User: Which sequence fits this backbone?
């Protein structure tokens, strides 16, 4: 098994690295990695309905979609991620096979952890690890988080959403009470010591191991994948399953309700309902916004073609855009 101890903490890099290693190597692997504060979204989720958009914007938190299914998780440098890539697997594998080493390792530290539900590891009934898998050809990639000393308040804030606004077939995250491993240790331990401990433990349970360090060539291929996929709005947001957003726009001239239907990231339909005090017909805006990508930049660009006051008296572009994004 190849053991990869990755020091990079950029979430775009790390998600692209997983895909690159899965698709370009024909060997079993184990990788440990950490991300700077970020949200990692499941393959089939509606990104906007899973994140606290205002918080994410205010703190410039990258939101990155991954290959595997499941819900949205928060990462920071207090969270360690582990990835197993196993060749010669024809289907999804038992989650327990890949999480048992973590449970066993924690037992050596006197921490009692258990597997629960479909994809969680718990200590005292609280989650510290979420897991997911992805199949590629005859391989399975299993990855999981390990909350060791994460900022739990930031985790809750980043994932705090008002889900009633969105309707669609996107996979919803399963909210849990969470805990950090370090709170359950009988003695102080640094996160990097814990990371070393996991790597040591893994290298002992497998006999035939080799450390592998990413080469210049690997890194340049990973960088290409970042630019073509992992850093793009299309993959992280646009790729969401189709959804409808229900919201209300409050502006000095009144209140209007509206629905936006979004498919492949673009507005296919938008309808405003209510009393309008603007002097122009609202259907012009409805037509104007069809085909616009459901993001702030594209909405601003489309709306800059008109005088917003002609439709929403006393309002401005920013207010209308935040409304249409479902932020307020
Ligand atoms: N980092 C982290 N670890 C454990 N649990 C978390 C974390 N962040 C949030 N949560 C909690 O899990 C739920 C979502 O649970 P849910 O079961 O919906 O989703 C998951 O667990 C997905 C795990 C994906 C693991 C990948 C491994 C490497 S890249 S990401 C969320 O609402 C919080 O309550």
Assistant:
């Amino acid at each position: 098994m190849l053991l990869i101890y990755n020091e990079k903490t950029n979430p775009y890099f790390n998600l692209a690295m997983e895909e690159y290693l899965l698709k370009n190597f024909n060997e079993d692997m184990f990788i440990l990695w950490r991300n700077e504060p970020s949200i990692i979204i499941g393959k089939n989720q509606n990104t906007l309905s899973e994140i606290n958009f205002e918080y994410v914007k205010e703190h410039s938190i990258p939101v990155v979609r991954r290959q595997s299914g499941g819900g949205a998780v928060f990462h920071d440098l207090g969270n360690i991620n582990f990835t197993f890539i196993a060749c010669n697997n024809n289907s999804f594998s038992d989650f327990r096979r890949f999480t048992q080493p973590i449970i066993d390792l924690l037992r050596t530290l006197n921490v009692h952890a258990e597997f629960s539900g479909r994809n969680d590891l718990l200590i005292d009934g609280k989650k510290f690890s979420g897991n997911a898998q992805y199949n590629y050809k005859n391989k399975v990639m299993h990855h999981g988080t390990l909350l060791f000393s994460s900022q739990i308040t930031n985790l809750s804030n980043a994932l705090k959403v008002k889900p009633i606004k969105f309707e669609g077939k996107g996979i919803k995250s399963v909210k849990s009470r969470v805990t950090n491993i370090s709170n359950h240790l009988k003695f102080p331990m640094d996160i990097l010591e814990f990371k070393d401990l996991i790597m040591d433990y893994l290298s002992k349970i497998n006999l035939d191991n080799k450390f592998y360090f990413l080469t210049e060539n690997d890194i340049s291929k990973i960088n290409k994948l970042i630019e073509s996929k992992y850093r793009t709005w299309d993959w992280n947001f646009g790729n969401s399953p189709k959804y409808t957003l229900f919201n209300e726009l409050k502006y000095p001239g009144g209140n209007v309700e509206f629905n936006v239907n979004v498919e492949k990231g673009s507005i296919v339909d938008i309808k405003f309902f209510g009393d309008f005090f603007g002097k122009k017909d609202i259907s012009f805006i409805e037509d104007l916004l069809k085909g616009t990508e459901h993001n702030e930049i594209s909405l601003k660009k489309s709306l800059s073609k008109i005088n917003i006051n002609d439709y929403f008296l006393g309002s401005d572009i920013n207010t209308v855009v935040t409304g249409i994004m479902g932020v307020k």
In short: Residues 243-325 form a domain with the Enolase-like; domain 1 fold (CATH 3.30.390.50). Residues 191-205 form the longest helix (15 residues). Residues 40, 66, 70-71, 73-75, 79, 81, 119, 127, 129-132, 143-145, 147, 155, 159, 173-176, 178 surround LAQ (CB under 6 Å). The longest strand covers residues 126-136.
